[in-house]
Amino acid sequence: MEHNMFIHILFMLVIAIVSIAVLGRLGLPAILAYLLTGVISGPSGLHWFTQQQVHFVAELGVVLLMFTLGLEFSVPRLWSMRRTVFGLGSAQVIVTTFIAGGIAYLLGQNLVAAVVIGSAIALSSTAIVLKLMNEQGWLRRRHGELSISVLLFQDLAVVPMLILLPLLASDGTPMSLNGILYGLLTGILAFIGLMSFGKWVLPRIFDEVARSRSNELFVLSTLVVALVTGAFTQWLGLSMALGAFIAGMLLGESQYRRQLEADIRPFRDLLMGLFFISIGMLLDFNLVLQYWWQILVTLISVVVLKIVIVYGLLKLAGEHAKVALSTAISLGQVGEFSFVLLALAVNYQLLDNEISTILVAVAVISMSCSPWLIRHSVDIAKKLKGGKPSKAMVEQTVILPASEDDDFVVILGYGRVGQTIARFLKTEAISYIVLDLDPTRVTESRAAGEPVYFGDACKMGILKRVGIRQASMVVVTFAEERQTEEALALSRKLAPDAKILVRTRDDSNLTELKEAGATQVIPESLEGSLMLVSQVLYKCGVPLPRIIKRLESERRNHYQYLHGFFSGTETDFTLDLLHAVSLSTSASSVGKKVADIPWSQLDVELRAVRRKGAEIEPAPDDWVLRRNDILMLVGKPRSIEKAEDYLLQG
């Protein structure tokens, strides 16, 4: 029996591999390959497995999917797009749910089933739309911005849906409004409790985990956090996926976000594959053949309904007709989270198997058609509306992160050399992003407002997340030879056209590094650091006379920019350190002038003051310190500690 189970699992994996390869050649998403694998190996096909046999493992896939969704849920990004997200996005979800659910109710479904059906139909495929939009280069266009806004709100709307589904499961008893309100209150209290836990406890846990420098411990800790928070919300009678989403959202603003995403992705992809295979097992071909015309009618009705609703809302908002239509066509499919809602609804006995089968079939077919519809959405809009939309309408850009600027530089390693390069890039207003594995250094530099992230530059997933493919230059500053070689190889593979500059201690392996893809190799020392800076600025387009002038200025000032660096876990305490001190409301130095602080007695130097994103260097003597000011201090570690205590407590 166990031998047969092993053989069946092996054959199922082979079917999945072949299906992904074949459908990938046809330009179809991998989700459809997993669904096809489930159909073939499930009750409707060879009957190797039942949906219940893979349900538990598949549910873990949903938990990890919601965790990674929480990691990508950027509150600042959401706030910057709040008008379209909460305006257009909320209107689309509410109107679509109401109309689709109302039609289902009129066709004989009960109120609970109608709500589930309307919610499932309201969602679109975030994975498919974003992937195809990115391939077409449309994320900066107006219809790309609008599509992202709607998808962001849909992802956010999944959370209350996950809270409501377990509450709507009445187990044969009449549904109580008081019970639902009590459940919602429980969900809110759980959210507050997890938020508190995430704010005060999780960062400290991952600080300690990162200091261990054990990749296995980091991965294990990530999985445990996702599953424990999910188990906590399930214990409260809510969904496991809700707890995992909250945990991901809490860690999404930390410096460990990109490392967490890279570490958990293999587990998520594997388990999500099993989840979609289990969904495929729900497809009963006998029912599909029996209700084929209902499926076809429902498919056409759902796609047309979603297109009409989005188009109408955008027209009411004053958008250009062609932009509105191309956006509506892009969002016409049913999304992957609809499978999650339908699967949970069936498990909670909120939906009949027949209805679920019809809706799953509709979702599968709509997702199969969506790549063609999205790629031709602009052409279809032009043909239906005639002429070309104005450039201002179609190509209106959104505020994008620094990783998509033209002069974008990736710095791998944020030690002395990396920080020196970053400072010169900042003076020339050249955008950059940094990866470093020292948790203390990352925390210190992020507190000072630097774009530094915790991540292993020797992992392909991390480099992809920071947008290395769009970078014009990569600077490798590691001291370890093995780390340098691995980072160089991956960087050259992912960014074949980028300039790659490598710092080494000496020229012993200069030839090997150039053969591995380095554009230029620079040996170490203070002058070597300045040489690397000059090459970075020159290749970023800064005029040579300005570079020479700046370098000569640094030499005249005794290499001021080459002294005082953010400390890390392994710090040489004989060197001057750079430390950021943030002034709270109760800090004793708030309200005092810079001249009133005894800097010489404290044996530290005030390098600069940062206020509301602006940097004053040097700060004048009559500068009055305010709360939330960030003071950049340079000095020996003991002096820095004494100065910080004086500034905060007096």
From TrEMBL:
Keywords: Antiport, Ion transport, Membrane, Potassium, Potassium transport, Transmembrane, Transmembrane helix, Transport. It is found in: Membrane. Belongs to the monovalent cation:proton antiporter 2 (CPA2) transporter (TC 2.A.37) family. Its main location: membrane. It is a multi-pass membrane protein. It comes from Shewanella aestuarii. InterPro entries: Cation/H_exchanger_TM, K/H_exchanger, Na+/solute_symporter_sf, NAD(P)-bd_dom_sf, RCK_C, RCK_C_sf, RCK_N. Residues 406-523 form the RCK N-terminal domain. This is Monovalent cation:proton antiporter-2 (CPA2) family protein. The chain crosses the membrane at residues 6-24, 56-73, 85-105, 111-134, 146-168, 180-202, 214-232, 268-285, 291-314, 323-349, 355-374. Coiled coil: none annotated. Residues 565-649 form the RCK C-terminal domain. SUPFAM superfamilies: NAD(P)-binding Rossmann-fold domains (SSF51735), TrkA C-terminal domain-like (SSF116726).
